[in-house]
Sequence to fold (178 residues):
Amino acid sequence: MSAALAANDGLDPISAQPGAARGRPPWALAAAKMRLWTLHPKYLDAAGLVALWREGLLARAVLRGRTKGYRHHPQLLRFRRHASPRVAINAYLRVVLIEARTRGYAFDPTKVGPRYRGVVLRATQGQLAYEWRHLMRKLRSRSPHLHRRWRRVRSPEPNPLFLIVPGHVESWERRSGA
Fold:
């Protein structure tokens, strides 16, 4: 299935998660693996960008109170800390949408709320560096051509919504040896 088709299949962001057939609720796998990257989405491979879109839509549903699962996922803290969490997640999704359009993907823009300018989220240098190492590990095995393209980058760009400040990996991060 192409990334464009997968991203615009009209399904709820959690409805097509693998693992549901093995007796797990669909949201369980999404919640366990969810990542709302601090990194600019340009660094993601097709699978990563589609996953980010779906996970962002799931986060949006949670912040809108439209789902029971996933409400306490630590990745949502940065959005909840914003004065207007729903505006923040919509702005985040809009950046993902712009990257998808750049690649020719057909993500559904009606799934993103109104456009607001001036939305800023804070993230630490340590978080950005942690995510970069994590992504490089993923790309090494999943998309070696992108790993070769990006491996020499020493200061990756964040998603434009993020203001990077000094600091360590965020306390909410679930670390996995990166």
In short: Helices lie at 3-7, 26-33, 46-63, 77-80, 85-102, 125-142, 144-150. Residues 3-165 form one domain. Residues 1-22, 24-31 have pLDDT under 50 and may be disordered. Strands lie at 121-124, 162-165.
